[in-house]
């Protein structure tokens, strides 16, 4: 079911062609991406509570990590993703509460949530600091934000040079996605009580996507 929660004006625009392309891309490439990061996600998303808020759920890559019967409040502004997301929810027995809005403005009450998750989303949102402030606002004290992200490679490395060279076509293709963000720094700067981050490297052909972090921030 989709709750009526319109995207605030000017915060997100779906490109007709690229919106559909990205929904298809993540449906097709999802299993390959998942194969690369499954072990880390299994650790990160272990012991999730009965209700979870997910930012940028896409076509439902993380639903396999939820216990059947979990309620997922999925914040996903990109309508072309919704069909795949609903299908994934049905496949995995997840009770889907789909909010067509942006992570910067979830519309959820202050201190109302035990757990927020996201994967490969802070790279794409317009304002990561605003999203992290929103996560802090909605989490109860002691609640967790669990994330997986691709980030900028260390300065001066060949991967970093490639990320710089590819930044425009990459952002154009993947609807604003940046390979150049220090998202670990952003999470640490967001004012959480504690932040644990594990950096790691994939060995996929998408070289500029290979430098990643996963972690948990505690409200
Ligand atoms: C790279 S995809 C990742 C999708 C999914 N989390 C995964 O791991 O496959 C980024 C997702 O973030 C969504 N997104 C982009 N901007 C957003 C925003 N401001 N708020 C919430 N979601 C957003 C996109 O629509 C897309 O579904």
In short:
This protein has 219 residues and is an alpha/beta fold. Helices cover 33% and strands 24% of the residues.
Written account of the structure:
The protein has 219 residues and is α/β, with parallel strands linked by helices. It has a single domain, classed as Vaccinia Virus protein VP39 (Rossmann fold), CATH 3.40.50.150. It has five helices and eight strands; from the N terminus they run E-H-E-E-H-E-E-H-E-H-H-E-E. The protein has helices at residues 16-44, 82-92, 128-138, 158-173, 183-188; strands at residues 2-3, 51-55, 71-75, 95-99, 113-119, 139-150, 194-201, 211-218. It has an eight-stranded mixed sheet with strand order 1-4-3-2-5-6-8-7. The longest helix is centred in the first third of the chain and has 29 residues, at 16-44. The two termini are 29 Å apart. The structure holds S-adenosylmethionine. S-adenosylmethionine binds next to helix 1.
SSE layout:
Layout: E1 2-3, H1 16-44, E2 51-55, E3 71-75, H2 82-92, E4 95-99, E5 113-119, H3 128-138, E6 139-150, H4 158-173, H5 183-188, E7 194-201, E8 211-218
Parallel strand pairs: 1-4, 2-3, 2-5, 3-4, 5-6
Antiparallel strand pairs: 6-8, 7-8
| Helix count, DSSP H or I runs of 4 or more residues | 5
CATH architecture: 3-Layer(aba) Sandwich
Total individual domains: 1
- C-alpha geometry: globular
Our estimate of the beta-strand percent is: 15-25%
Q: In what order do the strands lie side by side in the largest sheet? A: 1-4-3-2-5-6-8-7
Provide the succession of SSEs: EHEEHEEHEHHEE
